[in-house]
From TrEMBL:
Cellular component GO terms held in the UniProt record: cytosol; nucleus
One Pfam family in the UniProt entry: Hikeshi-like_C
Any one Gene Ontology molecular-function term assigned to this protein's record: sequence-specific double-stranded DNA binding
InterPro entries (UniProt xref): Hikeshi-like_C, Hikeshi-like_N, OPI10
Stated family: Belongs to the OPI10 family.
GO biological process: heat acclimation; protein import into nucleus
Protein name: Uncharacterized protein
């Protein structure tokens, strides 16, 4: 059905590496794979195997869970997008870890895969959305800093020249043309 690879960390692993919870859910216990160093795994490549046909309205969704936390969506693959390299931004472990009895088995990090309706998923690539958000924030910060250097204060209001956006945008475009690496500085 599917396989995964942890770049620079593993060989391709098929579905047999995962524990099947039910017909549509699988879980990989990271303790068996890397022990407590789960957060050193930063990305996973998931792919559909050639002989598996996923219905066009379905996706294989990937989730991660730190010890004691809830599952967090990372991305998905579909027939139209049969493989993906997903960033694993592990959530912070929950404070519930301290409440467990001493003789209870240790909680571990997990990667979950489930078959879901494509329409119910927020985005196929969460990491790409976060990069776009960070880029927009950096451009906005650049605009704010530029405007701040020209503004005055009138009580609780900032006063800026009417052509400030035009001036900023022209300066932004000129700098991007002069220095091809300028825009790369905005991407994280």
């Amino acid at each position: 059905m599917f396989g995964v690879v942890f770049p620079n960390r593993s060989f391709p692993m098929d579905i047999s590496t995962f524990n099947q919870i039910d017909t549509f859910h699988w879980v990989l216990d990271m303790n068996h794979f890397v022990g407590e160093a789960y957060d050193s795994i930063n990305e996973v490549c998931i792919f559909l195997l050639n002989n598996f046909t996923l219905p066009p309205d379905k996706a294989l969704a990937v989730y991660i869970q730190s010890p004691g936390s809830s599952f967090v969506f990372c991305g998905a693959v579909t027939l139209a997008r049969p493989s993906a390299l997903l960033s694993l931004d592990w959530p912070q472990p929950s404070g519930q870890l301290q409440l467990l009895p001493a003789d209870s088995p240790p909680l571990s990090a997990k990667i979950g895969v489930s078959v879901q309706d494509l329409a119910t998923l927020p985005s196929l690539d969460v990491a790409a959305d976060k990069k776009i958000e960070r880029l927009a924030m950096k451009v906005g910060e650049n605009l704010f800093n530029f405007m701040q250097s020209f503004c005055g204060v009138d009580g609780s209001k900032l006063i800026v020249p009417m052509d400030i956006l035009d001036r900023w945008f022209k300066k932004f475009q000129e700098r991007a043309k002069r220095d091809p690496d300028y825009l790369k500085g905005f991407a994280l």
